[in-house]
Amino acid sequence: MSETGSYVYAVCRDLPPEAVEGVGGVGGASVHLVEEHGLTAVVSAVSLGDFGEEALKRNLEDLGWLESTARAHHAVVDAAAGRAVTVPLGLATVYRGEDRARQALRDRHEEFSQALNRIAGRTEWGVKAYADLAAVTAAEEPEEEPSSGRPGTSYLRRRGVQRRTEEESRREVLMAAESIDDELLEIAATRRLHRPQDPQLSGERGWMILNAAYLVDDERAEEFRAAVSRLAGERPAIRLQLTGPWAPYSFATEATEEEAWTEV
Predict the structure, then answer these.
(1) Which residues, 6 or more positions from 209, have their beta carbon under 8 angstroms from its beta carbon?
(2) Strand partners, 23
């Protein structure tokens, strides 16, 4: 038989055991709790034949396997987050047995405690902004003047105007994205900026100018939703997409990489 490991979905505080009863984990495994030093890990047993280092490299390239694993992972996290403050862990966080998982709770006790304090009473919301740069540029292009002089000179003049207009449009929509982010940050406790997604992967039209996660106090959730709706109405050239509420995946750890806006 293959050696088994402990798949850890999340770390919680004061999670009742019945919160995960009947919740199917990865591969349909039953989920249980492991408690240590006032922290609770949500765990299920997995085969290291599937979740060992080499096996994971292979399985993570299998989109079907990846999707089913992610769905099970999120289902467990959502069940826990519905009953207690929950720090979600990354997909396929696996230890070689429960003793190792307990050791991780001891070794990372301060880190997990700080994260739990940071997200208590708060939920993650995602906001993405898309701009149709061609439409913005077309709206700003000046009316073409009557042709004069040589055709080549006229063409170069038009191309020069077009390039300037495109650059101005890019700056304009990026400034709009920063303005949207500033207004939402006045409501949110904090936010994380993510890299823009490739349109081929996201399936969305337009240039993604903002991809952010906001950590919002639950008592201000409706205010945040209303602000996104208002901002979308004020900027018809920019399409806003609101998702959530989510368990605070983006805020499980402190930011370790410099966040940056989309480059022009």
Answers:
(1) 129, 130, 131, 173, 174, 176, 177, 196, 238, 262
(2) none
pLDDT digits 0-9 by tens, 203-223? 667 788 899 999 999 999 999
Q: What is the pTM of this model?
A: 0.76
- Going from the C-alpha of 49 to that of each of 30, 58, 65, 96, 253, the distances in angstroms are 18, 11, 14, 12, 29
Tell me the pLDDT tens digit for each residue of 50-99: 888 888 888 888 889 899 999 999 999 999 999 999 999 999 899 988 99
**Domains along the chain?**
4-119 (no CATH), 122-251 (3.30.70)
Cα angle: 117, vertex 98, 109; to 5 degrees: 25
The residue behind tokens 């105007």 is 161
Tell me the backbone φ, ψ of residue 157, rounded to 5 degrees.
-65, -45
